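Pilot study result, target chain (297 residues):
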Amino acid sequence: MQAHTALARQVSSVREFNRFYTARLGLLRKRHLGGEFSLTEARMLYEIGAHPRMTASELCATLGLDPGYISRLLATLTRRKLIRQAASRADGREKLLTLTVNGEESVERLNTQSDTQIERMLDGIDSADRDNLVTALAQAHRILATPSNEVRIVRIARASSEAREILEEYYEAVGVVKRDDAAALQAVLDDHASGMWLATIGKNVAGCVMLRGLDSIPGAGECKRLYVRPAARGFHIATMLLNALEDHARNQQLDWIYLDTYDDLKAAIALYEHRGYRRCARYNDNPQATVFMRKSL
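Predicted structure:
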């Protein structure tokens, strides 16, 4: 009984662990928990319930999904009277999302269904395996559920092996053609108005971003190489990296931050727009870029 209780506590209601596993490992089913919602719909309801008045852009960034797809599902959930969308006073283009009473009841049903599923799983496990499972879940929770207050953002002075490694990972993930060599990277680090920031969780590098001068536009800098490793996503690390970069740019009395990206990176574009970046004319000769944005500081 003691092991059973410890296991139940560890899973913290396995509802939470269940949601985390399905989101991280992509265990997609047509209907979540065999109920009325798809996995994506269930995740949306959970996130809105946990973060009332979050915006659609924030929801897109959290789930890493296409804004058009999220918009269609939000419209469906609104028609079903499960969520409420209210105009944001800060940005008229944004909608603040909250659950209706029906939505809150639906989330509670999902929680009950998840608890029932977990109870059935536990009933078939003997005491020795329960002990092993408690240990394994504690380890998984420690590794995966790192809270954002353990994330550190550091501006680096030297092109360390960790910095070069995450940049190479970024290049491969996005398919970058024009890459910085070691000399170009160190030049950015040596320029007091520029810089590179690393996000770390414990001893592990989780993300990066770079600011470099934009000689073609007076009073402007360029945001480059924003990247968060897949295992570290969901903790708002990209937001923290951009905060550090923009704070530094203001301290250097820059007026504008420019950046380029391309249409397929929907979640990144949604994040930039949420932070006040607006589309602008092409400002460089990057052959891969299709979207150009800037933000007034």
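One observation from the pilot: The two ends are 59 Å apart (CA to CA). A full batch analysis is planned for the follow-on phase.
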